[in-house]
Design a protein that fits this description.
By secondary structure, this protein is of the alpha/beta class. The protein has 2 domains: 217 residues, P-loop containing nucleotide triphosphate hydrolases (Rossmann fold, 3-Layer(aba) Sandwich); 104 residues. Strands 2-5-8-1-9 form a 5-stranded parallel sheet, sandwiched between helices. A two-stranded antiparallel sheet has the order 3-4. Helix 2 crosses helix 3. The longest helix is centred in the last third of the chain and has 20 residues. 32% of the residues are buried.
């Protein structure tokens, strides 16, 4: 990987978040990010892998592996999955492989640990050298929405994340040059290269309380949503994501956006992601009006220039519930009263 993605380029992290990530990388501990949905917890992983970690470790952009936590996730899922059903089928179908390794698919943290090791140490686990980087490399692992998993999941992965190893009971231990097992274990153990320890980021929407033992092993940072006094930072985020939108349109949208968050009476307040998408949709409506000759495009785009029915049509970007859409309509009709403009 040599190119930095647009998402990583456009991410604007405050200094406290950058510092928390640097502390986590220095100590080799996971970084746990909390904050309301839409505040950039997940997208920070891409910024970390492509911008912040390379700066910290003095290297090129790092691979990013994502693990989407589910309500059924187990600790083993973070490292690999074994297709036991297909393996059972192989015992009944002639010509199917009888090698357990052919029914293993490595997952986010398992891949990151394998990538930290030279091919000569993992060639018994990967069927094709093309699946492995040419030289050992450090990776970034995102464990997204860890609070969705069963309560035991965080504690179950503590030792593995601390020691950066995992065990594969379905595969025998690696043999030494003398043909003897490399360990007394009956399973294949895989330990990360200590000098290329993967960087782990976990996100949580705080839907469940995480165990204390787990929290003690993490560097914690809560991404606080910028208040109205910090709307200049929100404007910078919008401009970084959308390129060069009308600053007047951004100003109008931010004023309405903060009114919605502060006194809109919504069940679910919109966050940064919705704001960016809303302004993008407003720009699109203006472009359509310009195409049809209903807007000259000469003066800076302002929300007051957008016909009310056009504005109302964009509210589904901000409101995600019937009640919230109703409240948004009332705010628009009160704030921008009058016939279609």
């Amino acid at each position: 990987m040599s190119q930095i993605s647009e998402a990583a380029k456009s991410y604007i992290a405050d200094s406290d978040l950058n510092t928390a990530a640097e502390v986590a990388m220095h100590l080799g501990q996971p970084l746990l990010l909390t904050g309301e949905p839409g505040t950039g917890k997940t997208s920070f992983a891409e910024y970390l892998a492509e911008v912040l970690a390379p700066r910290f470790f003095q290297c090129g952009p790092l691979p990013l592996h994502r693990f989407e936590t589910k309500s059924t996730s187990s600790a083993a899922d973070l490292f690999y999955r074994f297709d036991s059903l297909k393996r059972l089928q192989s015992t009944r179908v002639e010509g199917m492989s009888q090698d357990n390794r052919d029914y293993i698919s490595f997952q986010a943290l398992g891949l990151a640990i394998l990538e930290s090791l030279p091919w000569s140490e993992v060639d018994d686990l990967l069927p094709d050298r093309a699946d492995h980087p040419p030289v050992p490399t450090r990776s970034v692992v995102l464990i997204d929405e860890v609070d969705k998993a069963p309560r035991d999941f965080p504690n179950d992965i503590l030792n593995e994340i601390d020691r950066m190893f995992f065990r594969i009971p379905e595969v025998p231990p690696r043999a030494t040059a003398a043909g003897l097992p490399a360990s007394r274990s009956h399973s294949r153990d895989v330990h990360a290269n200590k000098t290329l320890r993967p960087v782990v980021i976990l996100t949580s929407n705080r839907e469940k309380n995480l165990p204390d033992a787990f929290l003690r092993r993490c560097i914690f940072h809560n991404i606080v949503f910028p208040d109205r006094k910090s709307k200049h930072r929100m404007a910078d985020i919008v401009i970084a994501n959308l390129g060069a939108p009308s600053r007047e349109l951004v100003h109008d949208a931010l004023e309405f956006f903060y009114d919605v968050r502060e006194k809109g009476g919504l069940e679910r307040a919109p966050a940064t992601a919705e704001l960016v998408q809303w302004i993008k949709s407003l720009e699109y409506r203006f472009a359509r009006l310009q195409e049809t000759g209903k807007w000259s495009g000469v003066a800076p785009a302002r929300i007051t220039q957008l016909p009310q029915d056009e504005l109302l049509a964009t509210l589904g970007v901000l409101g995600k519930k019937a009640h919230d859409l109703g409240q948004l309509r009332k705010l628009v009709e009160a704030r921008y009263a009058g016939p279609n403009r």
